[in-house]
Amino acid sequence: MASVKPDFLSGEEAGAGGGFLPPLEITVDVPEFRYTKLSRIVAEHVLPQLVALHAPPEGEAPAIPLRTAEIAQLAQLLLGPENDDAANFVLKLKDGGVSLDDLHAELLEPAARLLGELWTDDKADFLDVTIGMSRLQRLVHVFEGLGQFPDYDEKRRVLLAAAPGEQHSLGSTIVQKFLRAGGWHVWSCHTRQIGEPAEIVAKEWFGVVGFSVGSDVHVPSLKEAIAHVRERSLNPRIGIMIGGSAVARHPELVDEVGADGTAANGPAAVILAKKLLAGALV
Fold first, then answer.
1. Chain-centre distance of CA 135, in angstroms?
2. Interval 153-190: pLDDT, tens
3. Which range marks the domain in which residue 253 is found?
4. SS3 state at 128
5. SS3 content of the chain, % helix, strand, coil (to 5)
6. Are residues 136 and 158 in the same domain?
7. Does 68 fall in a domain?
C-alpha cells in the first residue's frame, strides 16, 4: 500500500535549519519571464527533492501489492455458509492471470493471518476460525494439486522447536492447537541444544520444521541449527518456517537464517506449512 509523506526533509538532510524544504527565493521579474523562471526552478530543484523523498531506499524491492478488499472478502466467505463461493472466488482470480505464488503471498496466507487476528480480537470463536481454516486448506489442496500424492496426509508431520538458547518455542499451545486442528502430526523439541532438532529429523521423516526466535542474540545459533537440520534431514526438501518477535521486528531474518517463510499466527502457520510440504512432495 502506498504511503504519502509530507514534503519535508530529515534533520540531517535539512541541516541545522530544520525539516521543511527551504523557501524559494524568486525575485520579481517582468510578467512574461515569471512563468519560465518558476518552471525552471521547479524542474531543477523542487521535483528532484520530492522524488528523492518519496523514492524507496536503494536496493529495496517494491512491496507486494496488498489485496486488502480481496483478503477481507475471502475471509468472510471462509467463515460463511458451506458452499463453493470461496473456491469460485479464488478460481476467478487465478483465471484472471494471478499466479499460484502470488495467490499464496497476496491472498491465501494473508487471509489465514486475518482469521487468526479475528480470533485473537474475539471477533470469531475458535470453532469458526478452525472451520474457515479447514476450508482454506482445501483451497490450497486443490490449487496445489495435492490430490496426486496419495500419502500426503501421512506426511503432514511438523517438528516445532525454539531457537537454541530461547526459553519459548513456536510450539506454543496456540500454534500447536491450530496445527493439530489442521490435521498435522505435531512433535515438539524442548531442548536448547543446537544439534537436537537435526538429530530428530535424521531419525524421523518430517515435512516441516518450525523454529521460534524472540531475541536477536539467538539469530546466529538459529542459522546454525537450520543448517544442521537441512544437512541431516531424511527429507532432503524439508521446509523450514520461523516465527516469533524477532522475526516480526526483522522479516529479513527469513533469508538471513536460511528459512523458507514466516507465519504471524496459528492459522497462517498452518497454511504456510501446507505450502512448504507441497514443495517438498513435488
1. 20
2. 788 899 998 888 887 655 567 788 888 888 899 998 87
3. 150-281
4. helix
5. 55, 10, 35
6. no
7. no
Put the strands of the sheet holding 157-162 in their side by side order. Answer: 185-189, 157-162, 208-212, 239-243, 261-262
Ramachandran angles phi, psi of 209, nearest 5°? -120, 135
Residue 4 lies inside a defined structural domain of this protein: no
Q: Residue 144 corresponds to which cell in the numbers above?
A: 496445489
Q: For each of the chain's 282 residues, which pLDDT tens digit applies? A: 433 334 434 444 444 444 444 444 434 444 444 445 444 554 554 445 544 444 444 444 443 455 788 888 888 888 888 778 888 888 888 888 777 778 877 888 888 888 888 888 888 888 888 888 888 888 877 777 766 666 777 888 999 988 888 876 555 677 888 888 888 999 988 777 889 999 999 999 999 999 988 888 889 999 999 999 999 999 999 999 998 888 989 999 999 999 999 988 888 888 899 889 888 777
Which residues make beta-bridge pairs with 20?
Answer: 8
Through-space distance between the first and last CA atoms of the chain, rounded to whole angstroms: 33
CATH number at residue 264: 3.40.50.280
What are the cell numbers at 61?
A: 524491492
Beta strands 239-243 and 261-262, pairing class: parallel
Cβ partners under 8 Å of residue 133, min gap 6: 78, 112, 115, 178, 181, 182, 267, 270, 271
Find out whether 221 and 203 touch, Cβ atoms under 8 Å: no
Whether 270 is covered by a domain: the verdict is yes
| Gap between the Cα atoms of 197 and 228, Å rounded | 8
Could you tell me if residue 214 is inside a domain? yes
CA distances from 144 to 141, 147, 156, 209, 267 (A): 5, 8, 15, 20, 18
- Could you give the angle at the alpha carbon of 33 between the alpha carbons of 27 and 37, nearest 5°? 65
> Number of structural domains, the chain?
3
Query: Is the Cβ–Cβ distance between 149 and 243 less than 8 Å?
Result: no
